[in-house]
Structures are given as C-alpha cells and as structure tokens.
Amino acid sequence: MTSNARPARSSSRKRPRPPAAESGGEQLMKIGEAAKALGVEAYVLRFWETQFPFLRPRHAQSKHRFYSAQDLRTLRMIKRLLHEERFTIEGAKKYIREVGLEHALSGKQPPSPTHGASNARAGSGAGPAGGDSARRALAEVRRELESLHKLLEN
Fold first, then answer.
1. Which entry of 35, 107, 128, 134 is 20 to 30 Å from 69 by CA?
2. Considering all CA atoms of the chain, what is the largest pairwise distance in Å, rounded to the nearest integer?
3. Domain extents in the chain
4. What is the DSSP letter of 111?
5. 98-134: burial string, b at 16+ Cβ within 10 Å, e else
6. Sign for the pseudo-dihedral over CA of 137, 82, 78, 113
7. How far is CA 104 from CA 7, 60, 92, in A?
8. Per-residue three-class SS string for 20-69
9. What is the pLDDT of residue 101?
10. What is the per-residue pLDDT across 79-135, written as a single tens digit (0 to 9) for each?
11. Do residues 87 and 110 make contact, with C-beta atoms less than 8 angstroms apart?
12. CATH ID of 22-84, from 1.10.1660.10, 3.90.1150.10, 3.40.190.10, 3.40.50.720
C-alpha cells in the first residue's frame, strides 16, 4: 500500500534573529512582545519612535525592531508621562528636555516647581509638583463627565 502523505515541508520564511546585544546575553523583545508588556499596540511604539528621538530600538537585518530592558524602561516613562500624567507629546518632549532624560526616567518630581514644564499638560494648570489631591479631584471630574457623555450618547 502506498501512502499519499506528503513529507513535512520546512517553512521558507525565516524568523528574524535579534541583533547581537552589545552587553552579551541581554534579553531583547520583539515589538509585539514589548507592546503587550506595556499594554499598548505596536503602532503606538512605532509612533513614539518618530516623536522621541532618544528612543531607538535595535533593528535586525530584516528591519524588525527589538527592544532592550533600557528601551522598555524608556517606553514606560513615556507612557507614564502621556497616559498617567496627561502630558501632550510636545509637553512630554519639553519636560524631558528641561529635566533631562535620566531624571525623567527616575520618575522623581522635578527639581523645582517653577521649571516651566507646568504648562505642558493637556488641560491642567498644575505642574508636576501640583499635588495629588488636585490630580485626584480632576480625575473624578473627568470620570463624571465621561459618564455623562455616555448617557447623552444613548
């Protein structure tokens, strides 16, 4: 009896190999893995690359992006500024320029409340040292407005 089964074909598509890490053995993540770890979509990371020149992941010969642990740390800082602290893109760039990348990565409050980045936030006159109570009050007002908006849409 002859079998009509075909032999298993090996895929002609090769998986991209991460570029050699300079610090030997460093774990690199693909863009999809990094996006999932941060809770955003991959296109968001690609967009942030265009907006923040200091964000430069490594690229394989196939042009696939690979993110290091330091890149993820930088991405978390950008996400914190944009999503939690409600900076605009331009405001976040200005803030990082004024306080420095390392200070922004540390997540600490800026050296002085009169540093000039206070107007960098969308819809907030308070600076980064503006106080948690004001931030909480604004968040509550926002939630109430969003719930009213949903009611009006229906």
1. 128
2. 86
3. 22-84, 88-154
4. S
5. ebeeeebbeeeebeeeebebbebbeebeebbebeeee
6. negative
7. 56, 29, 10
8. CCCCCCCCCEEHHHHHHHHCCCHHHHHHHHHHCCCCCCEECCCCCEEECH
9. 83
10. 999 999 999 999 999 999 988 888 788 776 655 444 444 444 444 444 454 566 677
11. no
12. 1.10.1660.10
Contact between residue 60 and residue 19 where contact means Cβ atoms under 8 Å apart: yes
Burial classification of residue 139, based on how many CB atoms lie within 10 Å of its CB (0-12 exposed, 13-18 middle, 19 or more buried): exposed
Nearest to 43 by CA among 65, 59, 76, 70: 65
Q: What share of the chain is helix, strand, coil (3-state, %, to 5)?
A: 50, 5, 45
Tokens 């298993």 correspond to: 8
Q: Which bin fits 123, alpha (ψ -120 to 50), beta or left (φ > 0)?
A: left
Query: What's the rounded Cα separation, in Å, for the pair 78 and 48?
Result: 8
Q: What is the pLDDT of residues 73-93, one digit of tens each?
A: 999 999 999 999 999 999 999
- Taking the model in full, what pTM does it have? 0.57
